[in-house]
Amino acid sequence: MKLSSRLDTIRNKVTTHYDHIWDCCCDHGQLGMALLASQPKSVIHFVDVVDSLMVELETRLNKYAADIQPQWQVHCMDVAHLPLVNDSKNLIIIAGVGGDLLIELVRSIYQYNKDADLEFILCPVLHNHRVRRELIEMGFGLISETLVKENQRFYEVLHVSNRSTQPLHCIGSEMWNLSDTEHQEYLHKTIAHYKRMEANPKCSEKVSHLYAHLLN
Description:
Blueprint: H1 5-12, E1 20-24, H2 30-38, E2 43-48, H3 51-64, E3 72-76, E4 90-95, H4 99-112, E5 119-123, H5 128-138, E6 141-150, E7 153-161, H6 181-198, H7 208-212
Parallel strand pairs: 1-2, 1-4, 2-3, 4-5
Antiparallel strand pairs: 5-7, 6-7
Helix pairs in contact: 1-2, 4-5
């Protein structure tokens, strides 16, 4: 199955073994099904709150992956109440949702599992700076980060852990390659976006200058 650039970037970040991988808000399950092939020793959990999607996905899995059924599970539930497996190595992937919802989901999982080793791969649709700021507040550190362009849109893919000692920066650090014209394009778009927001007197988030420093 050919993945989109965004989903392929996420899959390529799964480079070590996890006992359980949670593909959250998985929609049609393309990422999780790719992980079934690339991570055959992991249990892949497909999680979404939309019942009809999960019924359809389970039917497809029963058709194409019935012989490895112990390797996958389908959960129709709120990701905020994810039933992580204690004393196991868990990776939680949340992609394709807005930044505000993503923050809400991560914060809920964090609050229910504060003593656990929490590792996330996150790809918010919007509000990357806010997502990063909230992750920093919760004590998450960086494992890796990548900027990817797909269908004329840019996405930041963050791999973070509450056990990582590598600082996570609110505007990104290692993802930037400003000799790349696409990275330059994204940076200029981001600065312009925040300047438009900051022109509103009610806007309290003044961050365009932080991104502008990257041009120096």
